[in-house]
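User: Okay, second chain of the day. Same drill as before: sequence in, structure tokens out.
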Amino acid sequence: MLVHLLQFFRPTQSLCFLTTIPLPQGLSAAEEDGRLPPLPDGVSLQPGEKRFDPNELDKYWATNLDFSMLGGSLDQRSLDTFESLSRSSTQIVGFSNGPRLYVERVLKEIGLAQYFEPNKLFGVTDVLPHCKPDKSSFEFVLNKVGALPEQCIMVEDSMKNIRAAKSLGMKTILIMGKGRKQQALNKGASLAEATKVGDAPDDKDQAVDAAVETVAEIDTILKEWMVLSA
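Assistant: Same drill. Structure tokens below.
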């Protein structure tokens, strides 16, 4: 779920982890527009009180979701890649459409929390009212870490986010999912479309500079692009 890498910023490059869960942004916008369902009978709000608090949802997700579904720590090859990046001049930056506490919990569960400094980690609750793939959300993160788009590589499984990053001038690596590259050769994107409706990975898209099946394989691309030592 949250193994969606975003960007490497140069000269102090940066790597970002992402999710694609814009629910906090959607509910916040719905409340601002008056589109939430009516309150139940007998329930009222105090003056100025909002019905939806993104931070409450964040705390609930971080403490109540079944994180065992993530499968525990990433494979050793992926962990080795992060370790190598942490010893280089690369800044490792996280940016997710999930709320911040949830993102922190996921990073802990998959064994990557140690690689993300608090001021280099961004959840959707940090960039509201925007979220990926909004241009403003990317610009907010870029400004905070002091990077230009052309200094970046985005690694993602969402074509919407890949295209947005490419339009800003970033390099891109598409994560297609295990077995999906062969599926794409044999059957097109139909199987991927079943799980990512309207956003199926497409390694033939002009916004994609490189494509891999899993996070474990990005080390090969980074070595080719001289981000990591061979």
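The chain has one domain: 4-26+59-224.

User: Thanks, on to the next one.
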